[in-house]
Amino acid sequence: MRRISIFGATGSIGASTIDLIRRDPEAYRLVALTGGQNIAGLAALAREFRPEIAVTADPARLPELRAALAGTGLACAAGPQALIEAADRPADWIMSAIVGAAGLPPGLRALRHGTTLALANKESLVCAGPLLMETARRHGATILPVDSEHSAVFQALAGEDMASVERVIITASGGAFRDWPLDRLRDATPAEASSHPNWDMGQRITIDSASMFNKALELIETREFFGIDPRRIEAVVHPESIIHAMVAHNDGGILAHLGAPDMRHAIGFALNWPARRALPVERLDFVRLGSLSFRPACETRYPALRLAREVMAAGGLHGAAFNGAKERALDHFIAGRLRFTEMAELVERVLERLQAAAALAGAVTLEEVRRVDQIARDSADDALRLDQAAR
Ligand code: NAD
Ligand code: MG
To answer: Which residues form the 1-deoxy-D-xylulose 5-phosphate reductoisomerase N-terminal domain (predicted)?
Structure first.
């Protein structure tokens, strides 16, 4: 039996991971299951899988979790520190599927134990790529990318010599507004941005897909995970989401990874790695597909992509600032305090402010990443307040 933990078990990636585990319950022993605000969902999973511990991120919800697990004999805990302690529990495979920078501390702790970390939480690589990769190297841990594009690159690169790689191309579906005229985007609502044409995902990444902040994070994720020069990393809009990524070599050959848009492929690949096992995903019928199309990922339409280029060029703590500002801008958009197109404007202003204040010059340590994450969020709130006062 393999010992596994799932961080973010109640989310979209968590549910897909659970779906695979549920199909083969004899093969796994659950160590830790964690969630956020969905206490009923977390308790139901805990009752079904009987992990060593169930953890909610919110200390205020602990009594509720305790009550929901009464009589089961299952242990529970709450809060950011409890999440880190859950990552101390020995496990063979850990799914990192918390959304946002909150996924970094437990993921980092898990790597220190030399585990295999299936990384869906792209924000940890964006905020602290060098720290995460170095920690994995030092402790003999393995990070397996779960983001579909990065799983695709990982698979396409298997057995290849990095020195012959000319370009890595990740695809973008274009999200909810790919066919909207540019001048309509300003008035796009959170509800409109929350429906994805191809993928069924959590609300935050779905909105990030519409604004291309998701692809911006993924460009940085590609740079950090594979160590590729940012100038060799491209994004292209591919509305069908059938090709997830391509690796182009110096002899003109290009290896593409194709599959149905179903995260259970990338999750299952990481779960079974280095073996391949049958997975319950749709098989592609090329005749039915007919054709695949591509469009430029335009940096005027999607300023988040231009910002990602600047962040990659600057490196260091810029990723943490970019992600922190992006998370706050998204909070404000969801709450109706910011327009859709103002998210990128706000992030850009935060980056400019922090650069001007020389706040991003330090080394990429957990303490520094936390500090920068916080000042980026504060600075975003501050800039928004100034704007509102001026209106
Ligand atoms: P989701 O919102 O559906 O789920 C997020 C999970 O994190 C939930 O279990 C939630 O309770 C928990 N959580 C939220 N805030 C937390 C906090 N502050 N502390 C601890 N736990 C918290 O999100 P998702 O779509 O499953 O995405 C999870 C991660 O995977 C994200 O980093 C996302 O970018 C990445 N990802 C998702 C998909 C997808 O298809 N959903 C694809 C690629 C990558
Ligand atoms: Mg992706």
So the answer is: 4-129
What would the pLDDT profile of 244-283 be if each residue is shown by its tens digit? 999 999 999 999 999 999 999 999 999 999 999 999 999 9
In this prediction, does ipTM exceed 0.95? yes
Is the Cβ atom of 206 under 6 angstroms away from ligand 1? no
DSSP code at position 360: T
- Type of residue numbered 45: L
3-class SS of residue 189? coil
343 and 252 together in one domain = no
Q: How far apart are the first and last CA of the chain?
A: 61
Residue at a domain's end among 145, 168, 186: 145
- In sequence order, the 6+-apart residues with CB closer than 8 A to the CB of 369 are 101, 104, 127, 128, 131, 317, 320
Residues sharing a CB contact under 8 Å with residue 52, sequence separation 6 or more, in sequence order: 30, 31, 32, 75, 89
Q: How is residue 194 annotated by DSSP?
A: T
Domain match, 258 and 152 both = yes
Tokens of 56: 């909610």
Q: Where a domain ends, among 129, 145, 161? A: 145
Backbone φ and ψ of 98, nearest 5°? -75, 150
Instruction: Look at the chain and count its residues.
Output: 391
Ligand that lies nearest to the alpha carbon of residue 201, given by its number in the listed order: 1
Instruction: Tell me whether strands 165-172 and 243-249 are parallel, antiparallel or unpaired.
Output: antiparallel
* 143-169 pLDDT, tens digit each: 999 999 999 999 999 999 999 999 999
Nearest-CA residue for atom 32 of ligand 1 = 121
Helical (H) or strand (E) element with 165: strand 165-172
Residue 61 contacts residue 37 (beta carbons within 8 Å): yes
106 lines ligand 1 (CB under 6 A): no
Count of structural domains within the chain: 3
Look at the pTM and tell me if it is higher than 0.95: yes
The predicted structure's pLDDT at residue 174: 92
pLDDT of residue 390 exceeding 90: no
Least distant ligand from the CA of 173: 2
Q: Give the per-residue pLDDT at 379.
A: 98
